Please model this.
Amino acid sequence: MSGPEPLKPLHIDGSHFVDEAGRKVILRGVNLGGDCKLPYPDGGTHFPTDFQDYKTVSFIGRPFPIEEADEHFSRLQNWGFNCLRLLTTWEAVEHAGPQEYDDAYLDYYAELCAKAADYGLYVFVDFHQDVWSRMSGGSGAPAWCFEKAGLDMSRFHASDAAHVMQHNYDFEKGGRQEENYPQMSWSQNYARPVNGIMWTLFFAGRDFAPELVVEGQNIQDYLQAHYIGAMTQIAQRVKDMPHVIGFDTLNEPGRGFIGQPMSYRHVGPSEEDPSIARPGLAWSVLDNVSVSHGVTRTIPIVGLKDDLSLGVTDEDTLNPNEVSIWRDGAVDPFEAAGAYTVDPNSGAIEVTREDFFQNVEGRVVNLEEDYMGPFFCRVAEAVRAYKSDWLVFAELDPLSGLTGEGFPTNSPSNLVNASHWYDVVTLFTKTFDFPDRFNIFTGKMMHGREEIQNFYDESLRQIQASSVDLNEGKGAPTLIGECGIPFDFEGGAAYHAFADGDHSDGPWERQNLAQEFLYNALDTLGISSTQWNYTASNRNDLAIGDGWNQEDLSIFSRDQQIDPADLNSGGRGLKGFLRPYPRAISGLVEDVSYNREARTFSLKFHSDGKAGSEIFMPRSLFPEGYSIELKGAEAVYEDQRQLLHVRSEGASDVVMLIEPYVDDDA
Model:
């Protein structure tokens, strides 16, 4: 079901994506895919491994074998998506060793990119990572980075320096194991020693580890040069594809120790840090470096208290085995720089400078301005050496979307705000309470549709506002690089219903409702997005899900594909995300609304009359046809691409209402 016309290149104008005809374009896309973080075919976290085969793994086949591409791209096009955040990882490109690039994988990735154009899909390349690396509980960086930093990855589990599913999960038992590997616990690795050390070295090694030199380069320059070198390997292969519109800087980067005092533990809003505490272990930098040197530490746990506020609920003892993660003979670069001293016998830490990671030669450091901005510029310069007009999709750390932090003032031009946003209560509890919902940020309940919708609207509006000063004050488009929901609500209740023969929409109502609030907010604000995610290998199995750390956010599952000839078969919660939207407007949208239950779509925009506009209108929502009330323009429906083409003669206020067709004589 390929489109008859080639994709037109996009550029940005203020807060809008704009095509060659001058139309304002909404990119409504999907992340492809959740299992791209892992080797193929048996690299999923539901397979045991000690990671010692890291040099010989292959990522060819992620997100799917090339011979399956037509099927999956056809489905995504049928569902109205026009954009892919196409995942890859640094490890996929350079796993065998420094500058040992996997040319076969690079060719596969380029072929996948090229084929996406046949289905009307713009692509931006996402070099994905989660908590640094597979070996530290996530995905991203190759294993050899640890050796260069002086760390021994074989000791991470025994020391509690990283929480890794493959080391904690009982594979013989299977299923969900909250006692061994709690849901979403991977994210807490950002606060553990391996991540703290690696992110500090990656972004700020020159300031905080000046003596750590690898092959003639400071560790910061070495790591960034290899990361960006892997990125340019892809850039040179896709530079002549007009539908490849740019590169993501780096998925959800960590903060490391940058800007933190040595001894402070954040367990709630304080004068030192007024932000809410993050659930989980409340590590200090001192806790991190002590555990890294084999010292046992008892650390408070932040959780929901009886009054539903966040605070200390328990404590845990870390590294009782007294295992150091530093390689034999390695020098701790932070000790060498004067942050603390380490007792050579006990490993005990004596802090020399409480503000070591906060102050460099009298200058108070700022993560965004001092480190993220220059990193963005380095990425932009490297990829634009191959194509000068590529967009850069920039991300700050994972919490930036929740705190509303602005982007660095020294960011490069042609930048897109690609922040992420999730309803974190839904994400972590895997349920969607309605009509009463708890707001973890205010500690109060929300009641009814209007209050919940306002919460979604205001959360995304805050992200949108963080980019108004980008691109020399002209502003930038916002594309929510990740948003979505877990589909395994209530222990996979919808999966059980499906297996028992209920293939109706009923079991998916909560998932549909959660997505409805999300897409209503995106429509209201005119924000582009790429939903997380589409995983071709997804299974309705709580031990597997998307194949990574038991996450299960894929809008597709093979286990639900009962009719391979039907492109909708296999979809999850379709009615939550499959909906009309204004894809390309010659003019300015003033109001857009979709009522999921009534299947009515209304749109008001001021047409400049310079080109035709396009509205995506899925035929599956109107199986018996539709009726349209239209003022100020004429419209023709193109069945192949499910597009309503709207054109006005000259400037005009266009108002439309689309409803399911009702035969009054029936």
